[in-house]
Design goal:
This protein is mainly alpha-helical and about 190 residues long. The chain has helices at about 5-15, 20-40, 45-65, 70-95, 110-130, 135-145, 150-155, 160-180, 180-185. GO terms for molecular function: DNA binding; sigma factor activity.
Length: about 190
């Protein structure tokens, strides 16, 4: 790709030029999809990785932290691969770690309360598994007591985006649990 075309795309991304962004998406999305699906990803994973990579590249371009020595397309595909590798590695680590939330058993708690709490936890965990891998990772790190900076470093997001994403995930999870008929039965 010639440097003039590359510079046009870079400037279009920085300025949010709709035509450039659509063209960039059409050119790169199929390649990203192919890579992620080849390595056991889902369509949702493809969309998440693509969005995360776009945000990362946009911020690097906007702040001037990126010197391109190749085409923006090749760089972007490389970013997507790295994000996917990191997410896959963290997903495997999360699958083998202990459950996200543990409740200490209280000897004074009645059997009914213990069963109800266990049932509520099952509803909660069932809905957590419906979240994307990146969403589960953010929540898992949050529940472990990690700071937003640590979570941002682990996920590759900016600290501000991490804070926003955590709130969106918690809201989505809360809505999913609230709309579950079993949960409604348990709290009635």
């Amino acid at each position: 790709m010639n440097s003039t075309k590359n510079q046009y795309i870079v400037e279009g991304i920085i300025l949010g030029n709709n035509d450039v962004l659509k063209s960039f998406y059409k050119k790169n999305f199929p390649a990203v999809r192919k890579i992620i699906l080849k390595y056991q990803g889902t369509t949702e994973d493809v969309e998440d990785v693509f969005q995360e990579a776009m945000i990362l590249v946009y911020h690097k371009l906007r702040t001037g932290d990126l010197e391109l020595h190749q085409s923006i397309h090749a760089y972007f595909i490389g970013v997507c691969k790295n994000i996917w590798k990191n997410q896959s590695r963290k997903k495997r680590m999360l699958e083998y770690s202990e459950p996200i939330v543990q409740k200490a058993e209280d000897n004074d708690t009645s059997l009914y309360d213990k069963i109800t709490n266990r049932d509520q936890e099952e509803v909660f965990y069932r809905h957590i598994t419906k979240l994307t891998d990146s969403s589960r990772l953010v929540l898992g790190l949050f529940f472990e007591g990690k700071s937003m900076r640590d979570i941002a470093n682990s996920t590759g997001y900016t600290e501000g985006y991490t804070r926003k994403k955590k709130c969106m995930i918690k809201d989505r999870l809360f809505q999913m649990v609230q709309n579950d008929p079993i949960y409604a039965e348990l709290i009635a």
